[in-house]
Amino acid sequence: MDAGAARTRCVIGVLEDGVLRYVGHGEGPSGGWTKGRIADQNAAAQSILTALREAETRAQVSVKSATLGIGGPSVRGNNSRSSLELGRPREIVQRDVNRAVERASRVQLREDRLILHLMTQDFVVDSHPGHRDPRKMVASRLEANIHLVTASEAEHQCLVAAANQAHLAVEETVFEAVAGAFAAVLPEDRREGVAFVDIGSQSTEIVVYYGEAVQLAGSLPICGDHFTRDVARGLGTGIDDAELLKVEYGSAAADQTGDNSLIDVPSPGDREPREAPRRKLNRILEARADELFGYVRGELARVGMAHALMGGVVITGGMARLHGMCDVAERVLDCQARNGLAVGIEDWPEEIDDPVWVTAAGLAMYSARLRLQGELENQSAGLLGRILR
Fold this sequence. Notes:
The chain is of the alpha+beta class. Helix content is 35%, strand content 32%.
């Protein structure tokens, strides 16, 4: 269940011999959201219920629980590190890994914060870094590097309560960018270094992988609504009309627009529409796209990955549909860029083979993985015990 600020989307799948197959989907307009946060829980619950009912009708099943996506400006990621003295040199066992990771997770969180994801990056064995699985190695000291994704506890509870109000139990909450990357980024691309950017109407999320480990996760301060409001101010029109102009005529690559191309801009009130150069519209959009990917560049530089994205940038969300976004990303970030599409789900219909459905697809795949890991969970010593499985 992808409860977005503009649209709420639901995907239902069935596991058959370890393979996830699509059986239904549903969507509807979202309500109750303001600046990426739930302002009206009842309206958000109704949006979830609408998408769920449509998906159930298509799939001809009744759904009682779901994996729920969470995003917005409250989600942040931070690195943490711990060390564990083993005494005399001996073989590292699972219990040692658990203890090292658990120590790294003992960070002082601010009030109203909860840990959403705990992701191992690598381990340092006797001052030798870069080990993904240190078990069975002989050492006297073990260090763990992890990435913690945290969210506002109040906002998390509000989103879960909205799902519960729609008669839906929540099995797991997943950071939307992590879920989207799960569906649109192949493992080999993660190893080479890749950034996944999900640009929604009221929030933009980013997750960066290198060597199969998460290096960065969080939110950016620019989203689709900023593009729309820029157009409204720049062309002197209303928000709704600016959104239509952005969708129908917009491009983030202004130089590709003809000098003599004109568009009709609706005027406030009963005044007649005005003509404006289409290039003016696209220059407005290009400037905001430059700013957005400038933030991405800054985040990459902060974690030392400014020139390490051999897998490029994958763009999803509603703004991925805007022509020229990949061109701006490639120019600003100096790497390849592409729109993300869901892969790995059998019978995925062409009608939703679109960047806006990647998060919902990733949540379904994440849910399927949790079910497949059920047997392993029973054999392990809790969450930390299955980190490396």
